[in-house]
Amino acid sequence: MPCISVQGVVIYGEELNALKDAELRDLLAAYDEVVFAGIVPEQKSRIVKVCQDMHHSVAITGRKFEDLDSLKQADIGIAMANSSCDLCIENANVILLDKSFLTFVTAVKEGRLVFDNIRKSIAYVMTCKLSLILPFFLLLTLHIPLPMGASLILLIFLGTDMGTVQSGGASVMVWDVCSWRDMGPLIRLETTLTGDRYLSILPDHLHSFMSIVHPDGLGQFQQDNATPHASRVATKWLQEHSSDFRHFHWPPKSPEMNIIEDIRDALLHAFED
């Protein structure tokens, strides 16, 4: 029989084989914490399927080739950049760059915070706009005169939209390059960065920066797989200038490179110390 505690249950591989799917679902529903020990990859896939049949969202980690099936089957596949095999990294939804799973917990908290902020913004916008559209609806359906003129309604629209933008609804996009020797130019992007726009940045700013900080041609440049970075025109330009500096390949489905995250993490550690 499985080893049962007050709040959880530990199920070993041999015991899992003796359980039917219905019995396994009952155990998963009865306890808040269920630990599986000594299981094989096939059993991991079975656990994922049973949890999904119970309408749970399943996140699973994979390090070896044998974990590939369960990694693909799970709702969220997690791989470790420094210990998982290449196939697991390529098929994972989330790749942890460090050895701590606490990073994933922090990412989930940040994602929930962003989702909650978006939901609040949508609720605010819908409440505001519907209250302004309602008089027009009443005019067309019930022939109730407008309580305010069209010009006043447009002014209210304009005022509320400006307030939304100033409270965080807008953002500024910039491009930068840095080296351990020096900082590169900070380029403000007036429009969304595209492959053609990025192509104009590479020769004017990246090439000149690499020529200054690495005049010997031994500089090494690395960027993430953002769509403009991986565009055909940008990739062709980098290949044509491979003699001036080396371009490192960024693994597929890796997190975006953002130095702000490293600075924020260093500040948090300094504050805690």
UniProtKB/TrEMBL annotation:
Gene Ontology, cellular component aspect: plasma membrane
GO molecular function terms listed in the Swiss-Prot or TrEMBL record: ATP binding; ATP hydrolysis activity; nucleic acid binding; P-type sodium:potassium-exchanging transporter activity
Membrane-protein topology: Multi-pass membrane protein
Primary localisation category: membrane
Gene3D superfamilies: Calcium-transporting ATPase, transmembrane domain, HAD superfamily/HAD-like, Ribonuclease H-like superfamily/Ribonuclease H
GO biological process, one term: intracellular potassium ion homeostasis
Classification via InterPro entries: Cation_transp_ATPase_P-type, HAD-like_sf, HAD_sf, P_typ_ATPase, RNaseH_sf
Keyword Ligase (UniProt): no
Transmembrane keyword on record: no
Places the protein is found: Cell membrane
Keyword list, A-Z: Cell membrane, Membrane
Domain of life: Eukaryota
NCBIfam families the record matches: ATPase_P-type (TIGR01494)
Name of the protein in its database record: Sodium/potassium-transporting ATPase subunit alpha-4
Organism expressing this protein natively: Araneus ventricosus
